[in-house]
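Lab notebook page, bench 4
Experiment: in silico fold of construct C2
Operator: M.H.
Input chain length: 336 residues
Purpose: comparison with the prior construct
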Amino acid sequence: MGGVPTTTEQPQPQQRRRADSSPYVDLTRAEWSALRENTPLPLTADEVERLRGLGDVVDLDEVRDVYLPLSRLLNLYVKATSQLRGTLNTFLGEAGTKGHGSQPGTPFVIGVAGSVAVGKSTTARLLQALLARWPEHPRVELVTTDGFLLPNAELHRRGLMSRKGFPESYDRRALIRFVADVKAGKAEVTAPVYSHLIYDIVPGERLTVHRPDILIIEGLNVLQPALPGKDGRTRVGLADFFDFSVYVDAREEDIERWYYERFRKLRMTAFQDPHSYFRRYTQVPEEEALDYARRNWRTINRPNLLENVAPTRGRSNLILRKGSDHKVQRLSLRKL
């Protein structure tokens, strides 16, 4: 992928051609950090600690260098989208279009994608916290696609329990309907609730979204294109509702290591809960428990990453590329 030269040497013609042909502008962390200008840091170290996921390495420097510039960029996108909507309304009015009327303000929708254990949940939570501090859009909601996983009973019935997290394990129709209703500006839209403790949908519990300024959708497969229907026609995909999307990226070997490290920490913390679906792995020797984690990675998480998640990276507006220390090292921003 082409990029901005990071030395004082002039790029060779072949390098310039690659950069020109790439749909992205490639930036180092330092180059990206400089784009935050005078954006103030509204979060404290304690707030960042509460927002970061288990095993993720995020501190105030990471927020300042990576997420503040991103919140500034997204704020500019929100403003520009509002202005574009005004332009569309002017056009429809001037054209005398009957039956269409003006387009009302609708939520700005952001998708956050990436592998399990790569830190996308932390990215989504940080964006929610930062974007809500901008006066133009104080109501920022975050919804994960886990709530649209089919219940375990249904996954067992369909023989999909070993494919949990793959695209076919979600109620995609309900997920798209939920985002479409929020995007349409409905006053209240509800979604199912997923519990990582019981590893299943919580019966009878719903999350309610009240006409947010910004909606963040976080999940493994949110950038997947729509699949053709049985009649061969292309359907609307979830990503069709996004105004901006972020893909959190890292080398496969690093993600695998982070997955095992997180499993070890969960085994010492959340899995200890008597109601935890995974409590059984606290009752066996560590090596036996890790054998389960390795098998899970090899048969579920790695195939899903390679077959479904990673191929959608090039559909995103921004790629955050992490190094082996879990910190963002480079970024690729899609050109307009």
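Observations: The longest helix spans residues 60-95. The two ends are 17 Å apart (CA to CA).
Next step: discuss at group meeting.
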